[in-house]
Amino acid sequence: MESARSGVVAEALPGSKYLFFRGGGEIGERGEAFHPVGKARGHGRDSGLLEHELGNEHGIGIMRFAPWQIVPAMLLMPLKERFPRLVIQAFQGLVGSCSSFWKFCSFCLKISVLILMPPPLHTQTFPLTPEQAEKLRSVLQERGFSFEEKPYMLYAARKEKLTIAVYEKGPKAVVQGRGLEDFISFVMEPEILGEARLGYEEVHSPEQFEPHFGIDESGKGDLFGPLVIAGVYLDGNLSRQLRDAGVQDSKAISSDKKIRDLAAMIRKSGAPSEVIVLKPERYNELYASIGNLNRLLAWGHARVIENLCARVPDCPRALSDKFADARVLQKALLEHGRKIQLDQRTKAESDYAVAAASILAREAFIDWLERSGKELGVVLAKGVSPKVKAAAATLIAEYGAAMLPKVAKMHFKTASEVLAKVSAD
């Protein structure tokens, strides 16, 4: 296995031919189009292990800035480009009308406010305990919110222009709309969370702003598409930049366009990154060899960490979501990775480095689905829904059963169900 950017050749397990690498966040792949294959391949190892039918929950992206923090220059370029002309026009107006010097001071004050004032907060995500989720439901009922049922949610509530969606997974609350900041300050923080968090991230989670790697994956719970594992290095300045641009866990972002925009911003920031795209056909071979998804994940995480260590050798720590016993990942680490502190914890995606990694991984995943679907003439949907099963059946009907392992993870129960149904028909 090789990474062009890092210059590191990691120990093969079981073979470098199974990986497609792009370093430094250069995501994607190019290859030959799919071709019909006539003979189906046997899948005797398909025992229905680890279905991972996780669903596909979605929230809304964040775009906000910490109180009284100067807005990143790249977001202010249009204003700065107009600023000299505005100043000239102001002087011309002052001279032409013989207005007082104080009018010019007032003009400068208004421009300063535009530059320094943070834009309004539109969306925020809060990890909750089950008890906090139920308490929030009661609080919303008391305040006259109307409720509705939605997929993958414990509940969704709305009042006027403010909406609160509480997802089953986590659980977590996504709050958006008009009046959000008041709701957070006067309801969410004092009554549900019991602490002030808005604008105090560096107080409550200072470790997020210390140098570290964040590792995350995408595609683990989807029948179609690759398993993608990504890693991002952040220090204090990079963490603040990504926070202010709205970086958060990719699962809380409903728009593919938003994912791609944030991924482009992460690369533009200069944050060192590594991405592994493990295509379905190779994934199936590796899974058959390794026989366990957690070990496969640990292997991929270890290699991302190894290559990031080569690029940022003085990084002291790596963080990932907890998917197995920490010893599984520790054992998979190679020479460089064994020298740093390895942390695993639940809800690690609240960390900006892990969130950034999740966005890069998600971008690679959706790009592969879109590109491969166009080549095959079939929409490769996400998740394991009936729509996914229908697409799998269509692929088999058009290209034969041997096509399924090229685009799907064959140890999923969904794959067995589709093959059984096609055989019965």
List the helices and strands and how they pair.
Layout: E1 20-23, H1 73-97, H2 101-116, E2 123-127, H3 130-142, E3 146-148, E4 153-159, E5 162-167, E6 172-177, H4 180-193, H5 201-204, E7 212-218, E8 227-234, H6 236-244, H7 256-269, E9 273-278, H8 280-290, H9 293-311, E10 317-321, H10 326-332, E11 341-345, H11 352-376, H12 386-399, H13 404-407, H14 413-424
Parallel strand pairs: 7-10, 10-11
Antiparallel strand pairs: 1-9, 2-6, 3-4, 4-5, 5-6, 7-8, 8-9
Helix pairs in contact: 1-2, 3-4, 7-11, 9-10, 12-14
Describe it for me?
By secondary structure, the chain is of the alpha+beta class. It has 3 domains: 16-53 and 213-371, Nucleotidyltransferase, domain 5 (2-Layer Sandwich), CATH 3.30.420.10; 73-116; 123-204, TATA-Binding Protein. 44% of the residues lie in helices and 15% in strands. It contains 14 helices and 11 strands. The chain has a 6-stranded mixed β-sheet with strand order 1-9-8-7-10-11. Strands 2-6-5-4-3 form a 5-stranded antiparallel β-sheet, with helices on one face. α1 runs antiparallel to α2, α3 packs across α4 and α12 packs across α14. It is globular.
